[in-house]
Amino acid sequence: MSPEYAMEGVFSIKSDVFSFGVIILEIISGRSKNSFSEPHFSDDIRAFAWAKWKEEKTLEFLETSLRGNYSENEVVRSIQIALLCVQDDPNERPTMTEIVSYFNSSSEEVPLPQEPILSKSKKMEYMTSKSHSINDSINELSVSTFLPR
Asked: Would residue 63 be called left, alpha or beta, if left means φ above 0 and alpha means ψ between -120 and 50 degrees?
C-alpha cells in the first residue's frame, strides 16, 4: 500500500507504481514484504533493499536459488528501478511508461533512487510537512474523519 494512501487516503496512478515496485522487490528477493527476520528490517522490504543498495551489495538481496543464473547488470538495474518505484513521494516515482522504457532499453539511464522514509516517526514527520492537510483531497475524493461521541 502506498504511503500516501496509507497515511492520507489519497489514491493515484502513482500508488500502483509503488505496489509494482514492492512486487519487483518480492520477486527478486524471493520473500514477501513482511518476511524479514532481521530486527531492523522486520517491517519493510524497502529497508532491506535500500541497505543492500547503499552498501553496494545488491546481489545479497537476490534469492539464493537464483544465484549463478542471472545477469548481474539486470539484477542491479531491476533493484534500482524497484527502489525508484517505492519512493515515498509519488512525484519522485516514475510513470509506468518510464518503467517499461527502463526495462526495454539497457542503454537508457535510470535515475538514482532516494533513501525511503523507513521509520514510523519519520513517516509522520514527512506527512505533516506536506503542503495539504489530511482532510484535503487532491483526487476529488472525500476523506471522512470519525470523532468519538
From this structure: beta
Domains of the chain by residue range: 3-127
**94 touches 20 (CB < 8 A):** no
pLDDT in tens, 55-76: 999 888 888 887 777 888 999 9
Q: What is the pTM of this model?
A: 0.72
Best CA proximity match to 8, nearest among 149, 145, 148, 147: 145
Cell numbers that stand for 65 in this block: 536459488
CATH architecture of 3-127: Orthogonal Bundle (1.10)
Please give the Cα distance from 89 to 7 (Å, whole number): 12
CA angle 114, 30, 52 (to 5 degrees): 35
